[in-house]
Design goal:
The chain is of the alpha+beta class. The strands form 2 sheets. A 5-stranded antiparallel sheet has the order 3-4-2-5-7. It has a 3-stranded antiparallel sheet with strand order 1-8-6. It is elongated and about 80 Å long.
């Protein structure tokens, strides 16, 4: 009796093992190979453009023996600068106060004792200039009207759409050429594009124009905007056949 039972169980167990393994084999055949060989390259595109807009930070620093006097003095200087800017064709919405500080300062003798105290007021204005032809004259007028700190100039392009589009095409071309060269050097065949990711940047050059202590300018400041780069970087991943 024991031998008969054994003979019947063997086919049944075999059938169960076969049926359990069959779906796993089919599933593995349908799952894509996540370890497929790939080539990853970084491409870059660069286009030089001529700026058509400039940003400057203009500061007014005033000091007096009392807060009220320092504030009034600073207000008059700031108002004179604003009037000059508006007269130069700068729109009021392009004149923005970015910082305003009031603080006491002291003078000391050789022993470190306070001999006098006064108050300083600092007012910084961020200005957008959309006509670069008047930039030099505007800086000159601002300096004459009471600005004693001009922190620098940043140039930019108001619309980078076309430049970025050209830079993207150059970056894609650069990446594809690299991928083809790598595949050829490695003795393999370049496959399909798997993924692509990109980033853009367009740093603006900075030109210092410091004027501490209320320096004077006697003629329009010569300003050269030059050109600024619009850069596109991307990563492209290809399969290897």
């Amino acid at each position: 009796m024991k031998e008969k039972k054994t003979r019947y169980l063997v086919p049944i167990l075999f059938a169960l093992v076969f049926s359990a393994c069959t779906p796993a084999v089919n599933m593995a055949a349908e799952t894509p190979d996540r370890n497929a060989a790939e080539i990853s390259v970084t491409g870059s595109g660069r286009v030089l453009v001529t700026p058509d807009i400039a940003y400057i930070n203009v500061g007014v620093r005033s000091q007096a023996n009392s807060v009220a006097e320092a504030l009034d003095k600073n207000k008059q200087q700031a108002q004179a600068i604003k009037e000059v800017l508006v007269d130069s064709g700068i729109a009021e919405e392009d004149i923005q106060t970015t910082s305003f500080n009031v603080y006491p300062q002291s003078n000391y003798d050789y022993q470190g004792n306070i001999t006098s105290t006064y108050f300083a007021v600092e007012n910084t204005v961020f200005i957008t200039i959309r006509n670069l032809d008047v930039l030099g004259a505007t800086l000159d007028a601002v300096a004459r009207s009471g600005a004693n700190n001009i922190y620098g100039i940043n140039f930019d392009v108001s619309d980078k759409t076309e430049a970025q589009s050209t830079a993207r095409k150059l970056a894609v071309e650069s990446a594809r050429i690299q991928a083809e060269e790598l595949a050829e050097a490695a003795g393999v065949v370049l496959g399909d594009l798997v993924s692509i990711s990109t980033s853009a940047s367009s740093p603006a050059p900075y030109y210092g124009y410091g004027m501490g202590g209320g320096g004077e300018v006697y003629e329009a400041v010569p300003i050269s905007s030059g050109q600024i780069p619009v850069n596109i970087s991307l990563i492209m991943v290809f399969t290897i056949q």
